[in-house]
């Protein structure tokens, strides 16, 4: 851990917290005060030499408590209109067109520019808001100009093109191997016929390919291996994307209070994918996926603590910096490790709410953040829906990160378990960033649960390990 970097994070979050506090945006202020406190806690663990660091942590947490009542009493800001949302989708279409334009994918870029123009013009005729009309027409003009500029070379006489002796570019095809380490793709991978592995082990045998094909179907839905061509997945559409299986089966507890499916723009006027990755912002509801939530929390804590992308790298679409971004068109792709390889899971952003408008799935304490709800939805889709019988963190952590799981049974009557050796190993590896740890309880009586402050058969994320000297 870098104590100096964590101190900088704390300063940045504190500045944002004070700013939101002064603007009366109390929900966001609460979120940033918590993040500032967490950053200082990690900085202290990393050996920070800041004076009065504990007092500052307490100050931020006390302000969080003071703002809770203000958050409850403050009325929510009005949501955006349909026409404002159309403008956001048009902007996203143009942004995606720019990306295809820069990569030299002319036909894809023209299609996206054209759809943006159509959406802008259609919406400008529907709305009476003059300011919005001007924005839509300006965006339409920019998109149209670029589309026309790209179309000119394609409309040149055929005789001029023949002299260049350029062979037509074949359409993209899926390769037989999963994605490697390269974050971006310059051009589609060629089709590779099944053959034995070469010296570098880059190709699968025909038998292995058949295994991958057979194991792609999970709970009735096919999840193909994640490949290089999937980095060119299309995410921009004029209309909100609807996944065929987007409305997942609900659990009995969800059904008891379920009202409807909503999209993020129905809940907040400023949805975003991630403000900051934090284990403290994850809120579990009535879905019985405690092991998954614990796995998500410890993965988020690791990314924040060691500044290595673990969770944010599996969500798409991503911007040029490889950071996941909010998609107003409602389509997302999550990369999960399932049945031996990374696989692509496509979802929409429809989420279940109760009659009070509260989410019935896991979510971030910052209601504008989507990463918690969307990653959970992707995993629940694979598992057959929110009516989830439960899993274990070995399976869940591997699905999220690809790390190899190991289970330690901590029973006092076990002859192979050594509490001292196990603690020493976990302590050292945890602080080096070599492991992600969750702990699960077994069956216990109500009295035992109250005594230890634990819930029976429940999974917990291990966020820190400390060693104390006890004087007997």
Describe it.
With 472 residues, this protein is mainly alpha-helical. Among the domains are: 3-73, Phosphotransferase system, lactose/cellobiose-type IIA subunit (Methane Monooxygenase Hydroxylase, Chain G, domain 1, Up-down Bundle); 82-154, Methane Monooxygenase Hydroxylase, Chain G, domain 1; 252-386, no CATH class. Helices cover 43% and strands 9% of the residues. It has helices at 3-22, 26-45, 53-73, 82-102, 106-126, 130-151, 158-162, 206-214, 252-257, 290-306, 371-382, 393-401, 419-432, 446-452, and strands spanning 217-218, 221-222, 258-262, 282-283, 315-316, 331-338, 341-348, 351-354, 363-364, 438-440, 459-461. The protein has a three-stranded antiparallel beta sheet. It has a two-stranded antiparallel ribbon with strand order 1-2. A two-stranded antiparallel ribbon has the order 3-8. A hairpin with a 2-residue loop joins strand 6 and strand 7 (341-348). It is globular and about 80 Å long. The protein starts with a helix and ends in an 11-residue tail after the last strand. It comes from Gulo gulo (Wolverine). InterPro entries: Calpain_cysteine_protease, MIT_dom, MIT_dom_sf, PalB/RIM13, Papain-like_cys_pep_sf, Peptidase_C2_calpain_cat.
Brief write-up:
By secondary structure, the protein is mostly helical.
Topology:
Blueprint: H1 3-22, H2 26-45, H3 53-73, H4 82-102, H5 106-126, H6 130-151, H7 158-162, H8 206-214, E1 217-218, E2 221-222, H9 252-257, E3 258-262, E4 282-283, H10 290-306, E5 315-316, E6 331-338, E7 341-348, E8 351-354, E9 363-364, H11 371-382, H12 393-401, H13 419-432, E10 438-440, H14 446-452, E11 459-461
Antiparallel strand pairs: 1-2, 3-8, 4-9, 5-6, 6-7, 10-11
């Amino acid at each position: 851990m870098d104590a100096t970097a964590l101190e900088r994070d704390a300063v940045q979050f504190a500045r944002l917290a004070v700013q939101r506090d002064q603007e009366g945006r109390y929900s966001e202020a609460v979120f940033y005060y918590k993040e500032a406190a967490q950053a200082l806690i990690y900085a202290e663990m990393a050996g920070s030499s800041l004076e009065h660091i504990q007092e500052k942590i307490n100050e931020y947490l006390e302000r969080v408590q003071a703002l809770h009542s203000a958050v409850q009493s403050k009325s929510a800001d009005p949501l955006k209109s349909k026409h404002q949302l159309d403008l956001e989708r048009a902007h996203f279409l143009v942004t995606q067109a720019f990306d295809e334009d820069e990569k030299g994918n002319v036909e894809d870029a023209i299609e996206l520019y054209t759809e943006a123009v159509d959406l802008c013009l259609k919406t400008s005729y529907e709305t009476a808001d003059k300011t919005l009309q001007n924005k839509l027409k300006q965006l339409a003009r920019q998109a149209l100009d670029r589309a026309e500029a790209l179309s000119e070379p394609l409309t040149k006489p055929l005789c001029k093109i023949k002299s260049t002796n350029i062979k037509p570019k074949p359409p993209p095809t899926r390769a037989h191997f999963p994605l490697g380490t390269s974050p971006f793709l310059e051009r589609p991978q060629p089709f590779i016929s099944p053959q034995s592995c070469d010296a570098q082990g880059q190709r699968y045998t025909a038998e292995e390919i058949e295994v991958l094909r057979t194991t792609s179907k999970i709970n009735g839905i096919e999840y193909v291996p994640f490949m290089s061509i999937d980095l060119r997945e299309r995410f921009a559409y004029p209309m909100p994307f609807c996944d065929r299986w987007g409305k997942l089966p609900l659990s009995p507890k969800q059904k008891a209070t379920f009202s409807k499916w909503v999209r993020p723009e129905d809940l907040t006027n400023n949805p975003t994918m991630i403000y900051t990755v934090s284990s403290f912002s994850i809120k579990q509801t009535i879905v019985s996926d405690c092991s998954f939530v614990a796995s998500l929390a410890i993965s988020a804590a690791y990314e924040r603590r060691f500044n290595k992308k673990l969770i944010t790298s599996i969500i798409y679409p991503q911007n040029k910096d490889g950071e996941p971004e909010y998609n107003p068109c409602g389509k997302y792709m999550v990369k999960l490790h399932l049945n031996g390889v990374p696989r692509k899971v496509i979802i929409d952003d429809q989420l279940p709410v109760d009659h009070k408008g509260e989410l019935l799935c896991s979510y971030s304490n910052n209601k504008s953040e989507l990463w918690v709800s969307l990653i959970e939805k992707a995993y629940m889709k694979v598992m057959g829906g929110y009516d989830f019988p439960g899993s274990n963190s070995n399976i869940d952590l591997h699905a999220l990160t690809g790390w190899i799981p190991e289970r330690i049974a901590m029973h006092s009557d076990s002859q192979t378990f050594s509490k001292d050796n196990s603690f020493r190993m976990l302590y050292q590896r945890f602080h080096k960033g070599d492991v992600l740890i969750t702990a699960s309880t077994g069956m216990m009586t109500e009295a035992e649960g109250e005594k230890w402050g634990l819930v029976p058969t429940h999974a917990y994320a291990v966020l820190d390990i400390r060693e104390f000297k006890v004087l007997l």
